[in-house]
Structures
1.
Amino acid sequence: MLRLLAVSLFLECQNLTQVASQLKVARRSVNTWVSDYLSKGLVSLLNLKKT
């Protein structure tokens, strides 16, 4: 899952821009995923439904 990978990479390097570039996604998406993870935990990344 891309969100889990993004958080994992962030925790390794602490740089949202590098993570976004490596995964070829918007930095804002990475920021949202990391923020959700830090505030709500792993469960926040496992929501598989698209809204």
2.
Amino acid sequence: MTTITLGEREIRETVTMREAIDAVRRGFIDLAAGEFEMPTRTALRDGRFLVMSAHHRSTASAMTKTLSVDFDRKPAITGTVVWSETGRPDHLVADAAVVTTLRAGAAVGVATDLLAAPDAGRLALIGAGAQAPDQVRAVHAVRRLRQLTVVDADPRRAHALVEALKPELPGVELLTAADAESAVRRAEIVCCATNATSPLFPESALPAQVHVNAIGAYRPTMRELPDELLADSTVVIDELGAALEESGEIIHAVEAGAISRDALTELGAALTVPDTEYGKRTVFKTVGVAVQDWAIAHLLAGKFLT
């Protein structure tokens, strides 16, 4: 038996963001087609320890991810992703932190490509933590950015992220903002990547046409978006069961009567309906599902296991 172990350097040098987006898009389409067995993840100690798994029927391959989350620690996410295939003696083990940030970015890239206006190029990013760089890279891969505005509770982190991304974004106007409300006022795309427990901005702060991605709140006790935004938008989620069990925004909005379950569209289903007309305001809410991790692991397996 051969075990291939991959760290951040090997993964970053091998997988482009465009490849990750394409892989995650195919994964969501297969999820909608019933190709996956994917139980809702196990969350222990209010989400500090997570276990996720997915089995892809047509390839007889499976992925299991275990990780711990501690926002007071650097890195905040640690763990492993294990990929294996029935009948093959070799398997792959990858750093869960880089797979998680890459797959979260890729999912946002898929959703932004589907939902944002074709000419959208002004991105407001709220949260400058470990997830933030791949959020920017993913949006930039599907919508050529003209302007990026970053805001964080710690202004130093916002400035540091802008400086770090400069070499990757030539010609893009790079700014920081003092607060989320001012950052989103002229945005065409918004990415929220925080551990907030209450909405980051009021619905009234947003332009009439905008696409919002929210990846940070992954437990019922966490929220990044206001009910009013969800009520006034086309809302796409990663997977219904996961959103209703884990997304603080969705749970709160449904219980408040701001949105109904029937108004929620899974990303995989949305991808299979061509030429759909969406409203001027769109939201993609993801808590992260195992098919995303499987997609990145499957991509890595194709490159490293022969």
